[in-house]
Amino acid sequence: MILKSMRKISVFLSHFLMDYIQEVPQSLTDDESVLPQDLLCDFLLEKISLTHPLEANGVFDLFLNILELMSRWDSDFEVYEVAKKICNRCKMGMDLPPERCFGLIINAGTLREAMFEKFTFEKIIQVIRIDLKMPCDKEGCEKRNYVQRMIYKPPTVFTIALEWENNETEGEIFDTTSVLKTEIDINTIYQYKGDSAVTKYRLASMVCSHGNQYNCVAYEKKRWVRLVGSEEEVIGDWDGVLSKFRNLHIRPEILFFEN
């Protein structure tokens, strides 16, 4: 389902078809019934490292593992975040070195807190990120301060992972997912210092847990669909997606937004 979700990202799909397939040994492509994505899946299943018990393999961790195996494409997903802090007590300022990551990890429960009732999705994420305080580096001070987070280059794909407790009620799932939006502006989440005028992103696909199974919910042909195993279910508009999440207790765990 991770791979199916990634294939709904247009830039990833085009890179995969143009780059990977050209390098597949001819012996593997003689059978025209073998689809390119099946070749990629077989390749990853052979190489990917799993921990035991299998339940310990987090979805986002598996996604990062896949990116490691496809390192020539991971630049589409990477974000270089710069943290800047000024101590309120001693006024010492510091710019930390750029930190490379592949998106944000957000606790799903924080999205439904009352204090965020009138905030947009990206504004909530901004506040959550700002609230991650860091201690002052000056010896003897060590006061914890809010941190400004900046990026200088927008990623092609912006990834948000949601961490769930797995015991949420139907109402809590709806309260959380109803905060999600299909379009975000990364200039709200970060202090963007680059020169690109394009800072808005559209939700392309999601990896979702459904009991002990996983689904892919994706936007294609101007409507939302849910992929369950080899079956495809047409959902329709975004309100239909939210209803599906609530009624079937489906939890979106990885969201892929495309620039």
TrEMBL record:
The keyword Hydrolase belongs to this UniProt entry's keyword annotation: yes
GO MF entry, a single one: cysteine-type deubiquitinase activity
Residue ranges constituting the Peptidase C19 ubiquitin carboxyl-terminal hydrolase domain according to the UniProt record: 118-230
Gene3D superfamilies: Cysteine proteinases (3.90.70.10)
Keywords annotated in UniProt: Hydrolase, Ubl conjugation pathway
One Pfam entry name: UCH
Coiled coil spans: none
Signal peptide start and end residues: none
Record flagged with keyword Transferase: no
Lineage: Eukaryota, Viridiplantae, Streptophyta, Embryophyta, Tracheophyta
A biological process from GO: protein deubiquitination
Highest taxon above the source species: Eukaryota
Protein name, UniProt field: Peptidase C19 ubiquitin carboxyl-terminal hydrolase domain-containing protein
